[in-house]
Design goal:
The chain is built from ten helices and six strands; from the N terminus they run αβαβααβαββαβαααα. The protein is α/β, with parallel strands linked by helices. Strands 1-3-2-4-5-6 form a six-stranded mixed sheet. The N terminus is likely disordered.
Length: about 250
C-alpha cells in the first residue's frame, strides 16, 4: 500500500500567516538614509526606528528631532539655523545627531510622538524624550541639548507600532471604507478595501478546505514490534513435545 504524504496543519497556517503579515505590514527596519556627520538626517516612517533606535538602546547616539511641515512658515525660518546646529563640533563630539521628519508625509511617526503643531522639537536621550519650547535660535537650542534639557521632565519614548497595531489600523480602515460604500459614500480606497477583503476571505476559505479535505495517513506498525510477534503460533518447548509423544506411544 502506497504511503500518502501529509502536510502538517501548523505549516499551512504558518504560510498563510506569513503571507498576510507581508501583505499588510511595512517592515519598520527597512534600510534608508545613512547618518552623515554634520548633516541633518531626513527621517521617514520606515527609517525612523532603524536609524534612531529610539526604543532599542539608542546606540546611534542622542537625537534632536524637528517635526515639521513643508508649508509651515516658522519651520522655514528656522531651517538655516537648524542646519548650522547640526554642524556644531561640540554637539558632534557629544554624539548628538539632528534629524527631521515631515509629518504630513510620514504620519505614523507623528502619531507615535503626538505631534499636533509645527515645528515641534524633541530631544531623544537615554531612552527618554524632552520637548523643547524655547527660542529657536542656534545658541538657545545648543544650551538645551548640552545641559538645560535636565530642567525638563523627561518622558518615556513611545514604542513603535507593532505588527498587530498595523493589522488593527488596516482592519479599521477597511471597515470604514466598506461602511461608507454601503452608505453610498465611496472613499478613495473603497476599491482596494473590497479587493483586500476578498483576498483575505479566499485565503481563509482555502486554508479551511485544506484542513477539512486533507488526506489522513494511516498508522502502520513497524516491523519487529509486539504486534507482529503475536501473529506467530507459540512454539512448544522440546522437552514438553517429547513427553507428549511418549504418552501417545503408551
Amino acid at each position: 500500500m502506497s504511503k500518502v504524504s501529509v502536510i502538517p496543519c501548523s505549516r499551512i497556517f504558518r504560510v498563510v500567516a506569513a503571507f498576510l503579515l507581508i501583505s499588510l505590514v511595512t517592515l519598520p527596519h527597512a534600510q534608508g538614509n545613512e547618518i552623515e556627520e554634520g548633516k541633518v538626517v531626513e527621517l521617514t516612517d520606515k527609517t525612523f526606528e532603524h536609524l534612531t533606535q529610539a526604543s532599542t538602546g539608542m546606540t546611534t547616539g542622542s537625537w534632536f528631532i524637528k517635526f515639521y511641515a513643508s508649508w509651515c512658515g516658522h519651520c522655514k525660518s528656522m531651517a538655516a539655523g537648524y542646519d548650522l546646529l547640526a554642524m556644531d563640533e561640540e554637539l558632534i563630539a557629544k554624539g548628538i545627531v539632528l534629524g527631521k521628519v515631515e509629518v504630513p508625509d510620514h504620519r505614523e511617526v507623528g502619531k507615535r510622538f503626538g505631534i499636533k503643531g509645527f515645528p515641534t522639537l524633541i530631544f531623544l536621550h537615554r531612552s527618554k524624550m524632552y520637548r523643547y519650547s524655547g527660542i529657536r535660535s542656534v545658541d538657545s537650542m545648543k544650551k538645551f541639548l548640552l545641559s538645560e534639557y535636565e530642567k525638563v521632565d523627561g518622558l518615556p519614548i513611545p514604542k513603535p507600532p507593532t505588527a498587530m497595531d498595523y493589522f488593527i489600523a488596516t482592519a479599521k480602515q477597511i471597515y470604514g471604507e466598506v461602511k461608507d460604500a454601503v452608505n453610498g459614500k465611496a472613499g478613495k480606497g473603497t476599491q482596494w478595501a473590497f479587493i483586500l477583503t476578498g483576498v483575505l476571505f479566499i485565503m481563509t476559505l482555502a486554508s479551511l478546505l485544506l484542513v477539512i479535505f486533507m488526506p489522513v495517513k494511516k498508522y502502520t506498525a513497524p516491523s519487529g514490534t509486539t504486534a507482529s510477534k503475536e501473529s506467530k503460533p507459540a512454539e512448544t518447548p522440546p522437552e514438553k513435545e517429547k513427553d507428549a509423544n511418549t504418552k501417545k506411544i503408551e
